[in-house]
Amino acid sequence: MMSETAPTRAARRAAARAAIETDEYRPTVPVNVRDAVYWATLGTAAASALASGVAGIWFPEIAGQVLATGGVATTVMGIIGGGVGVVYRPGSLAR
Q1: What is the DSSP letter of 23?
Q2: Residue 77 to residues 11, 34, 84: CA-CA distances in angstroms?
Q3: In terms of Cα–Cα distance, which of 2, 84, 79, 74 is closest to 35?
Q4: CA-CA distances (angstroms) from residue 87 to 43, 54, 72?
Q5: Where are the beta strands (DSSP E) in 1-95?
Q6: Who wins on pLDDT, 85 or 68?
Q7: Has residue 3 got a pLDDT over 60?
Q8: Does residue 32 carry a pLDDT above 90?
Q9: Please, what's the b/e burial string for 26-53 (b: 16 or more CB within 10 A of its CB; e: otherwise)?
Q10: Contact between 31 and 19 (Cβ < 8 Å)
């Protein structure tokens, strides 16, 4: 039994370019998933900014905890959103 060898990076890149040129390119991440991640990331960042600003005014005793929590949530969502953006970047294959 002979096993097929995996295509090289250059071969995969050439195939992706050919697919783009023939308008057959299909992104790795479905559009609805990408959009949901981007909207969730935007919503998390907005909620975090709002909570951080309001906490200092209305709840000064817990403002530090709110800021830290918002920072962690925004960082995690940024990593997830950035990962989706890296996976979905057909422009990087264009000439």
Answers
A1: T
A2: 33, 13, 11
A3: 84
A4: 21, 35, 23
A5: none
A6: 68
A7: no
A8: no
A9: eeebeeeebeebbeebeebbeebeebbe
A10: no
Dig out the tokens for 77 from the structure: 């969502």
Q: Is the pLDDT of residue 65 over 90?
A: yes
Q: Are 45 and 74 in contact (CB under 8 A)?
A: yes
Structure tokens, 67: 């800021």
Whether the predicted pLDDT of 81 surpasses 80 = yes
d(CA 15, CA 4): 17
**Residues near 67 by Cβ (< 8 Å), separated by ≥ 6?**
52, 55
